[in-house]
From TrEMBL:
This is Uncharacterized protein. It comes from the Bacteria.
């Protein structure tokens, strides 16, 4: 079965989410906007909007990357919030078809866990859960 869900962040979605969430708009050279706007203090807000906003599939795809990047930054600061992770995990598993490329990217299967991002072990957990379904 072919995955027809978004695989790339588009400029249109960046501008739409920037407006909806009062984020900085991407400039003409923005390539990693979804990582640049990550913000550990706004994870709850991002998750609330993910769950309650009227979002298109491609908007959910990009917003979840922002959430994951924000959570990875939080883990890098050595501040773990299990309730936040449980909420992220629940959304990733529920919408796994939308986020499979993102889950695989952050799982870094070709790398040892200790050579990866802080969030990699958590994303591998999600990958295992999704593969069990």
């Amino acid at each position: 079965m072919e995955n027809n869900y978004p695989k790339y962040v588009t400029r249109e979605v960046m501008y739409a989410l920037a407006e909806k969430l009062n984020l900085p708009e991407p400039d003409e050279f923005s390539q990693d906007w979804q990582y640049e706007v990550a913000n550990t203090s706004r994870i709850d807000e991002f998750l609330f909007f993910y769950e309650n906003g009227q979002l298109e599939c491609d908007e959910k795809f990009v917003l979840m990357i922002v959430v994951i990047s924000s959570f990875n930054d939080l883990l890098s600061e050595k501040e773990m919030e299990f309730t936040i992770w449980e909420q992220i995990r629940r959304n990733l598993v529920r919408d796994s078809e939308i986020h499979m490329n993102t889950i695989l990217y952050w799982s870094r299967l070709e790398e040892e866990v200790e050579d990866s991002w802080e969030i990699t072990p958590y994303m591998r957990e999600v990958l295992n859960l999704v593969n069990l379904q």
